[in-house]
Amino acid sequence: MGIKTAYQGYQPYSYLEAGKDYEPFSLEEWNWAGEYRLPLDENQEERVRRLAKESVIISLHDHLVRFPKNMTEKEIGDYNRSGRNVSDYEALSHSCLDCVFDNMMDGLNTISSKWGWKWQDILHDLGMRLCDIAHQDFLIHCRTTEDILRAHREGKIAWVAAIEGAAPIENDPDRIDILYGLGVRLLGLVYSEQNALGSGIKEVNDGGLTRFGKVCVERMNKVGMLIDISHCGPQTALDAANFSKEPIVGSHVGARALWDSKRLCDDRLLKAIAEKGGLVCVEAAPHTTMTHTANTHDLESVMEHFEYMANLVGIDHVGFGPDTMFGDHVGVHHAFAKTLSTKVILGDVSYKEVPYVKGMENPTEAMWNALRWLVKHGYSDSDIQKVLGGNALRVLRQVWKA
């Protein structure tokens, strides 16, 4: 069903010799959980095909890495330490994406330390990925909104380098400039644990955006770096929304009114982001955007969060950041529960664990099913095109200024 006509079969790191230049790993099939498509009638199917071709479709948050079949902490750790995570170009060729914000290793970036988030590791991860991208012609290293429009025209995908947490910049705001110069266009202020900029969602106390945090927000505004507050503590996130002169995003969030998890945003924060012209994008990583309606996690619960946020802040301020990957996402959470602070973040609300998020399990199927759900539920063409990418383009033009 893919419409990405420019893919010519390139395989990651094929310019090198496996076993000689790097250690190969046995990787999971990208569609290991099956390929789910929300059922539609013939007229709805035709509308989906038309909108997929006409619309600019953007994911504000995903992980394009394909993970090992053996989902143990050691195997994933060895895979990450090898420094060559695999981006699944072939799987992406079956998607409807025109642009994806790729957060790479991020919280699992343990090349030199089991605690992750080291400056040299971030640069290593970014450099390796850019080297692979330089050897192929399907993904475009995206720095401007014109790159997104070009990808849409040419049947390609605009790849945006993004980093979920700013801990690696330590106490040096000039590192924001360095990341921007290397092509990074989105930076999360905090990833769950407190850093020099502010507090994360796992902290008991949230002191808000620090003085250094304000320096960094100001610098990001100046260089044109999109600010993300998805893992910030509520006061830190609210301070960022109020202090920033440019729109900010919650690139992968949900409504805490529907599920009482620290990982989600309360109404006040959702409104504050929208009031500054920003965007809140619905999350789909396992056991995040659940709801009490069904007490499970699947396409329907994800879209319940979408509708709640759209009704609260308006259709012009919502989008999608599914936060998916290629491989067993629940397995990653199990293997790195301590590093990712999964139990602390999800809280004490009881729920039945799902093996995967049906309909939203990987970057290829997630946006297809979001589009199919919107068509099935009678959204207008205009509103569908806004939430799938139009709203994001508006924010990016304003923040990136390009």
From TrEMBL:
<dbReference type="Pfam" id="PF01244">
    <property type="entry name" value="Peptidase_M19"/>
</dbReference>
<dbReference type="GO" id="GO:0070573">
    <property type="term" value="F:metallodipeptidase activity"/>
</dbReference>
<dbReference type="InterPro" id="IPR008257">
    <property type="entry name" value="Pept_M19"/>
</dbReference>
<protein>
    <submittedName>
        <fullName>Membrane dipeptidase (Peptidase family M19)</fullName>
    </submittedName>
</protein>
<dbReference type="InterPro" id="IPR032466">
    <property type="entry name" value="Metal_Hydrolase"/>
</dbReference>
<dbReference type="GO" id="GO:0006508">
    <property type="term" value="P:proteolysis"/>
</dbReference>
